[in-house]
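JOB MANIFEST
job_type = single_chain_structure
chain_count = 1
residues = 319
[input]
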Amino acid sequence: MTWLSWRLQRTETLLTAGLLALIAALLVPEAIHLASLYDHDGLARCLGRETPACHQTIADFGGRAGVVRNVISWFALLPGLIGIALAAPVLIDLENGTFRLAWTQSITRGRWIANRLTLAVVTALAAGGILSLLCKWYRAPLDRVYGRLDGSSSYDLQGIVPLGYVLFALALTLVVGVIWRRTAPAMIAAFVAFVAIRLFDDGWLRQRFLTPLSATWNIDAPGPQLNRSWVLSTGMSDRAGHPFSGDAGILQSCARTVGNGVKGLDPKCLASHGGGYNHAVWEPAGRFWELQGIETALFAGIAVILLAVTAWWLRRRTA
């Protein structure tokens, strides 16, 4: 039965392997290029140092990191595509009715369901793990400079969350497909739902997993170290941390020259208008694995429930 399941899924598995090979062909040269830049420019000496020279060195490194850094955020869709593709063989089997042939032989429904779902899950998790390792290797120099919470291209494609995403996409496609019994519409609907849920997660849910840190400080005083952190919001405020609502006229009237012709803002002037402070809300870099664990558990837990519904529907409602 395992060999039969593999034969029915081998096309999608080979397509997934080909996709991962293309990603490796793109990321491996870029990873070597970034590592060379990191060593050549001496970025290690600038980590944690707040000097004009280091700021310029880091800015130059970011600018020379290449086009891949700007487009890799789209790779966040790959776990969804992989999961949906690996669900297709089961849905095609159901739509064409060929599963009945297996059920009329010595293979029981339970064994058929267990074999097909287990192979799909194992293959999806393996693909998600390979994708995570490739992106981690590519991002290693960037992570040393900017941190692993530096946007979706870092967080969403590293660690263990890709495993949760790909398992969720697989389970979502399966449950929609076994109920609908039409492969193409089910795959499209599942992909749209996956993208919508991921956007909701990225834009609203994730920042509420843990209570973020916050701080308010005088604009003339050094603020907290936010490098490598996930900054949720930052800007001018009053003493209580409420956003400063001053208009351009107030900012212009409070401008002053602080030296060498550099323009700054007078804190006392701003305070008289209800400002004079900066406020930031952020998740520190050290919470990377804690956030990953919560998010992976959430997506994987939902996926397990969806897989259970899929198995129940196949066993009880499919004829």
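[summary]
The chain has a mean pLDDT of 88.
Residues 2-209+312-316 form one domain.
exit_status = 0
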